Amino acid sequence: MNQHIYGTEPTGLLDYALTEGVQLNNKGVDLSRAGRFEEAMPLFVRALDIKEKAHGLYSVNFCISLYGYANCLLETGDLENAYEKARLMLDIARTIGSPEQTRIARDVLKDISVKAGTELLPDEIQNFGPNSNAPFVSFSLPHQEEFCLYQYTHSCVHIDGFQPESQPHLD
From CA 160, how far away is CA 148, in angstroms rounded? Predict the structure, then answer.
């Protein structure tokens, strides 16, 4: 029998199912990191099935495996299904109030939009405003009334169509 994630034997069917879901997800992650997306996808699908039955659709645990599956779909070029899964992840994450899963879902949606050459919907755009958890610095550029928020990862969020030639350099 598989060991429980905390190092003890599962005490019941639910514990076993949860452990199996985590292990399948982890194997999927390992295969994805190795670029073996086709092999990883069925593991994520099985993990999703287990996690949905154990936790319900609206859980962080379900979102974690949904991310892995959406990312595999993206990497194999199945952009329509990748979008569907990432969009579901965003909707779940926002419903359960998980800022981290919301951020991750938006990152995947951004990657899909870049590959597909499509624009993001307003709620799919990362929010680095004052009510988000992301640290930022606001600044003004010379001869511009608009401003942008410079997030600590050096990504610039463009506001009101303002798009500078290059990203600002902060000291």
Answer: 9
Partners of 151 in beta bridges: 136
Quote the tokens at residue 81. Answer: 């299904």
- 149 beta partners: 138, 157
Q: DSSP characters for 38-93?
A: HHHHHHHHHHHHHHHHHH-SSSHHHHHHHHHHHHHHHHTT-HHHHHHHHHHHHHHH
Say how far apart CA 110 and CA 126 lie, in whole Å.
9
Give the chain's end-to-end CA distance (angstroms, integer): 55
Q: Which pLDDT score, from 0 to 100, does residue 146 have?
A: 34
CA distance 71 to 110: 12
CB 158 within 8 A of CB 171: no
Q: Please give the order of strands across the beta sheet that includes 156-157.
A: 136-140, 147-151, 156-157
Residue 123 pLDDT grade (very low, low, confident, very high; cuts 50, 70, 90) = confident
For residue 99, is pLDDT > 80? Answer: yes
Work out the mean pLDDT of the chain and round it to a whole number.
76
